[in-house]
Amino acid sequence: MYAILDIETTGGQFNEEGITEIAIYKFDGHEIVDQFISLVNPEIPIQPFVVKLTGINNAMLRSAPKFFEIAKRIIEMTNDCVLVAHNADFDYRILRTEFRRLGYDFNVKTLCTVELSKKLLPEQPSHSLGKLVRALGIPMADRHRASGDAMATVKLFKMLLDKDLNKEIVKELIKFEIQKGISPKLMDIVESLPSKTGVYYIHREDGSLMFIGKSRNIKKRVNQHFTGITKSAKKIQNEVFTVTYEETGSELIALLKESEEIKINRPIFNRMSPKSNFNWAIYAEKDTNGYLNLKLQKADGRKKEIKSYISLQEGKNALFRISSHYHLCQKLTGLYETKSHCFQHTINECDGACVGKIAPLEYNERVHTFIEKNIFENKTLAILDKGRTVTERSVILVENGVYKGYAFFDLNYQINTLEILRNIIIPMQSNRDTRNSIQAYLRKNKYLKVINF
């Protein structure tokens, strides 16, 4: 559990500042589960430049509670939590100073989103909260007020958790909870999981990952691990300490994320990478007469494919649609074997390419039209899909034909430029399997909105 906070102060000399406002959001890694927001009477004047910056003045604080009156609530909100703040050293120092005046030793583990953003968002020119949230498309209200800054920090931290493909943040939290004696009861693990689409992570007691999986129903799938009777299921049951998860909303993002993070973390029970299901592919090759032939063959990673398919029949059906739509010769697409058969069925449509009645250059233009419309080659596009909540959408970026990664964005924030999308994207590796997965998902879900840049 995380306690994400922001503090506004009076300003003044080091260790003589007073708190004027505090906001704490208790965050479980997915959503806010509790919150505390309050003005605070610092019992000392506010510096004029701070009044101008925050809008909080001395008159506003006369009837506000003093720190000792809210101290118990602060302890309740931060107990057994990792304290998260933007420039955590400052907020932590202010809190420790205030508690020290009360004779209480306030001591918690801290995490700084400035340091995390420098590590996980190194491309950003500035790591100040205001500039980061603008660059990342994070909606922000009440800048320089505790509640607004703390909420922006929650959203930034959530994005940083997504960016942390090595799961270092989560692993450290698990170690912290073990030290604090907050070990979860294994019988309750399944009940704590959502019945939603996403990726789940099965951890040992030291926080290390032993299995990564994806599912349209995380709770149901993890329950199958815990009730399975296979050798690997039994081993997982014996060694599991806890299960964490990340909702994705989109099935495609869950698939791509699972594949990427298995390669990065190499969990022991994910030793066998799943083989690609796309065993057939269409290739384009020129024949001795200079005509481009489309051929459906067994997939060969050494050759540049146009499109791949799960089964031979799916590939044949696709070739038939291609030849009909783009007026391609069925012999040159491998659908008919003999010249006479080709002549009888397709000569009127393809202008007799198979018998040399149309020049190779003109015919090949039709083939190139098909290729340009059916592969990502040199295309830059964004695929919009469901998000994790009703107020959110997910987006997958393909740039110059290469899969770049995914992101989530608020519906109130418009993705209208490539630069904005590049800022918020969670970078991922591109390979044949990712391209095939994206193409197959688009074929299956024709309703998805695709933005071309």
Written overview of the protein:
It is a single chain. The chain is an alpha+beta fold and 453 residues long. Helices cover 40% and strands 21% of the residues. The protein has 17 helices and 16 strands. The protein has helices at 48-54, 58-61, 67-78, 88-101, 113-120, 129-136, 146-163, 168-179, 186-189, 218-227, 231-239, 251-265, 312-325, 339-350, 360-374, 418-424, 432-444, and strands at residues 2-9, 19-27, 32-39, 82-85, 110-112, 198-203, 209-215, 242-247, 280-286, 292-298, 307-309, 381-386, 392-399, 402-410, 426-427, 449-452. The strands form 4 sheets. Strands 3-2-1-4-5 form a 5-stranded mixed sheet, with helices on both faces. Strands 15-14-13-12-16 form a 5-stranded antiparallel sheet. A hairpin with a 5-residue loop joins strand 9 (280-286) and strand 10. It is elongated. The chain starts with a strand and ends with a strand. The model has no long low-confidence stretch (mean pLDDT 85).
